[in-house]
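Run log // design_07
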């Protein structure tokens, strides 16, 4: 490729460099390049001015024949500030969540070194204290000696580097303008805060970006299915470390999400995989106990039976039947329902969450998710069988949850269930419950800084419910004035759309971020929990996909802004 063609390809970078001529920063271009099965290499180009930096970059690009490198990113330094090592340590310890660092730093002098925030994250250079518990206390981050030394060796060939050496060298915090090059596209990267720098996700391109994430994310979840029909449970991507263990709830709920994705994308090639996954789950995760078919959770020395596992198996089979039209698992579905009604629901319509091996009560209550899951699952089963006894159970459970004030839990499964129940039975108290379940927590949902896809799921179901309420006879009894109803509807829809954009920009492993981890191809377009070591479990993919798919299937018209309540 000629220099002229290379300059044309990187015209946007050249223009930025020209704009920075009068800026008082050390001229530096940072190039991050890599292949699918390796962590990207990060190179720095320094010079007395940006003209020499640009010339060195062009020469290197042509000499190394980089036109076909799949992962390609350029950062240009636009701002910098000198700091002491003590300043740097204080900045690191002030970070409120693990992996929320949003700064780059560099070392000036004979041995120039620089570290993008993505390098710090992807190589786990900043690590929490041993006392850190995710979601419970501050991480108390510091530079990890071993990981810092290892990265210096890989990047610069420096052996036995020490963190203490940073005490006596000129240090700078710096900002960059970054571009990711994907085939013929030039994607300016946007800093969304807390270390999230990815391609632009805006109101204008939200539909297209959501569809991209659904399509690519569905492919990611499909790739997690092994030949046997079991999922790869997940990864900690810094080290390409598999997450140990397995979980019956997450197997079936992920199968449910994969069926949703196959339905949305109309990818019939996935149907055979769904069948294999269902067969594996039934064969390996269920047991015959006293004539009942129960979904089991193998523990180290025993087995337990969870209401949530029973629920997600019912939900998965119902969705599988809906999507594929294959009714081969109907007998299994009916037996799972009988096992629930006979063993997990009392005469007072209260649920029992966990049974022991002898079907005795192990825990009456473990987590509220199980209650919403079973109600939603039974309603989906009702949609298949249309049996009055299933609906009676559903109504009895819903009335119990209302009586026990379950709206205080603000649970996404209960939001799904409420909306589903209203398809068949419209009652004022169901609408009121659904409204309280969503609105009682909406300010927290709007402000939550982490990716939290279940919040999106809750709001999508609530938005569907409110759309139904718009033409219901109960609207006037729930809202004194039409303006009050519109205010609530707009509030839910606005926060829902805000969460869509937030989930995509904070929890999707876009290629421009995946390239900094050990195995980019394994994790690209997967879904992660940044504050939990970038954890990528199948249930993370499940909740992201379900939320985004249901949003796109619903997607209300544009709404006007309202004052936060």
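design_07 sequence
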């Amino acid at each position: 490729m000629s220099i002229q063609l290379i300059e044309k390809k990187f015209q946007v970078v050249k223009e930025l460099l020209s704009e920075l001529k009068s800026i008082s920063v050390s001229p530096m271009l940072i190039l991050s390049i890599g292949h699918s099965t390796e962590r990207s290499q990060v190179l720095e180009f320094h010079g007395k001015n940006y003209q020499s930096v640009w010339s060195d970059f062009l020469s290197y690009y042509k000499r190394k024949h980089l036109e076909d490198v799949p992962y390609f990113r350029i950062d240009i330094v636009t701002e910098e500030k000198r700091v002491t090592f003590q300043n740097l340590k204080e900045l690191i310890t002030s970070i409120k969540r693990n992996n929320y660092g949003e700064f780059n730093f560099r070392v000036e002098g004979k041995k120039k070194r620089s570290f993008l925030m993505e390098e710090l994250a992807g190589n786990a250079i900043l690590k929490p204290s041993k006392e850190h518990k995710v979601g419970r206390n501050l991480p108390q981050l510091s530079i990890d000696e071993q990981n810092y030394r290892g990265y210096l060796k890989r990047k610069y060939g420096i052996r036995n580097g020490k963190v203490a050496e940073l005490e006596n060298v000129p240090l700078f915090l710096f900002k960059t303008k970054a571009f990711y090059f994907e085939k013929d596209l030039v994607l300016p990267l946007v800093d969304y805060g807390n270390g999230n720098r990815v391609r632009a996700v805006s109101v204008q391109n939200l539909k297209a970006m959501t569809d991209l994430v659904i399509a690519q994310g569905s492919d990611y979840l499909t790739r997690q299915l092994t030949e046997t029909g079991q999922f790869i449970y997940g990864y900690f991507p810094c080290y390409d470390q598999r997450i140990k263990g397995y979980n019956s709830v997450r197997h079936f709920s992920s199968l449910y999400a994969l069926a949703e994705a196959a339905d949305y994308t109309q990818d019939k090639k996935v149907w055979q995989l769904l069948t294999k996954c269902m067969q594996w789950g039934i064969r390996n995760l269920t047991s015959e106990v006293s004539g009942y078919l129960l979904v089991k959770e193998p523990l180290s020395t025993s087995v337990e039976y969870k209401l949530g596992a029973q629920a997600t198996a019912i939900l998965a089979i119902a969705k599988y039947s809906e999507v594929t039209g294959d009714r081969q698992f109907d007998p299994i579905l009916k037996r799972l329902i009988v096992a629930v009604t006979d063993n997990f629901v009392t005469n007072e319509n209260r649920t029992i969450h966990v049974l022991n091996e002898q079907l005795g009560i192990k825990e009456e209550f473990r987590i509220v998710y199980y209650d919403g899951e079973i109600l939603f699952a039974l309603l989906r089963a009702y949609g298949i069988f249309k049996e009055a006894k299933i609906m009676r159970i559903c109504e009895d459970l819903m009335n119990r949850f209302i009586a026990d004030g379950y709206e205080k839990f603000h649970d996404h499964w209960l939001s799904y269930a409420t909306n589903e129940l209203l398809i068949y039975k419209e009652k004022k108290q169901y609408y009121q419950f659904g409204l309280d379940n969503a609105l009682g927590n909406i300010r927290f949902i709007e402000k939550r800084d982490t990716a939290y896809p279940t919040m999106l799921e809750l709001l999508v179901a609530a938005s569907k419910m409110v759309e139904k309420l718009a033409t219901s006879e109960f609207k006037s009894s729930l809202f004194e004035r039409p303006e009050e109803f519109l205010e609530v509807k707009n509030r839910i829809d606005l926060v829902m759309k805000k969460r869509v954009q937030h989930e995509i920009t904070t929890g999707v492993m876009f290629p421009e971020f995946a390239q900094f981890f050990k195995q980019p191809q394994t994790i690209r377009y997967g879904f992660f929990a940044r504050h939990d070591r970038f954890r990528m479990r199948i249930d993370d993919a499940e909740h992201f996909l379900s939320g985004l798919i249901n949003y796109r299937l619903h997607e209300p018209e544009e709404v006007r802004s309202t004052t936060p309540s």
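The domain at 206-554 is CATH 1.50.10.10 (Glycosyltransferase).
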